[in-house]
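seq:
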Amino acid sequence: MMPLPLPPAAHAALSETSPMKLLADVADRLFTENRREEGLCVVEALYLQADAALGGSERQKEGDARETGGSRV
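struct:
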């Protein structure tokens, strides 16, 4: 899978806009331009970002619990 470069305006707006919003906008544009395969790659990147944002803290808790021998839920 080849990474897609962000448009120049996206680099300037990174401090104002979340990376997930930027990816969603890029995916939307690619699908609008009938660039389905590239759009699907961006959607996959979105899923990875969401997983890291939402699931990463749970995985960290599970890892900490394993290291200390306790259980956290």
